[in-house]
Amino acid sequence: MTYRTTRQWTLTLAGGIALIGALSATSPTLLASPHPGATPTQPTHHFWDDLNLKPLPGDVWERLRDNLEWHDRRHVARVQEWIDHYRANPGNIVEIIERARPWMAWITEQVERRGLPGEIGLIPFVESSYDPLARSHRGAAGLWQFMPGTADALGLPRHHGYDARLDVIASTQAALDYIELQAEQWYEGDIELSLAAYNAGAGTVNRARHAAAARGEPSDYWHLQLPGETMNYLPKLNAIAAIIDDPEAHGVTLPEIDDAPAFAKVPITAPISLSQLANVAGVNQSELAALNPALTHGSANPATVDVVLVPIEQEQAILAELSSPSSRPAPRDGAQYLVQRGDSLSAIANRHGISVAELRRHNGLDGDVIHAGQQLDIPHRSLAAR
């Protein structure tokens, strides 16, 4: 089946081809997942800016099944081999789905909005086992496995404690944009060839197509001779789709995914660490880190992000606590403190019952100059009292 996109691109035709050409010139190990409209001068786009925090209508699984299109591929021998493989390890599928729980409904909705085959929303199963923090030995990161050089070229920044490759919304939009653009410009709307190029690089796929044509053979994905990983790429994707489409027939029990949001946005007006926020929320810091995978330094700064995601049941309490500087929680003994706007070394020392000299000595400071976003070690009170 060939998909023909009806998307109206914001780039000019020449600009789109130039972008694809630039990426195809990179190493095949770079996953080409650019955002065609992104430039280094544009404002950073964060996954929480667009995250739909309202309950989505209907059931996530039914919604996904309604959008699956490649049913005929499940009869291909290569797909059947992977169906058998996954059926022999049903726990793997369930484990990945549990990891996908916060993001699956949103990604499914984005794929649906574009009119793409629902199978596209399952690509993170193959790429990263749906782990936003996944990193390959080659240096790729995130759900869609962007390489650093690719991310830099595509305007997905890595700075100030923020890695856009781990930004679920930014990376998803980039991947879907490129898959569509590449299919439209090079493969006459053939999404399967575009996915093969996403995995192996366009140069590898195009050489395989030319070789097939020279042999008088079809040049669609299923007839090409490609590297082993790419030969298995779409079979894996279709096998997972088949199991999700009819889990009972494949001996798999899918966990329910609640459409209601498990998190809410909390605006950030001053730098704050996730450990401080966890203290306020009464939740584990690892839970907040899981909801905010792009915050690589464990802190949020309004210079980089506007909001963080928190468990929805703690939303009101956290908003109340963060509404005034006086309500900011003090770090525990021996903890770290993220300097806020308007803080002074003496005020921080007084807040924690220690001397300025002790705070300077503990952090190797020569004077009293500090800046917002700076991390200070707070000495244990018993040590400070000596």
Automatic annotation (TrEMBL):
UniProt cross-references to Gene3D superfamilies, sorted A to Z: 1.10.530.10, LysM domain
SUPFAM superfamilies for this protein: LysM domain, Lysozyme-like
Record-annotated LysM domain positions: 335-378
SMART domains, A to Z: LysM
First and last residue of the signal peptide: 1-32
Keywords carried by this UniProt record: Signal
Domain of life: Bacteria
Family the UniProt entry places it in: Belongs to the transglycosylase Slt family.
Family matches, as PANTHER family: LYSM DOMAIN-CONTAINING GPI-ANCHORED PROTEIN 2, MEMBRANE-BOUND LYTIC MUREIN TRANSGLYCOSYLASE D
Name of the molecule in the record: Transglycosylase SLT domain-containing protein
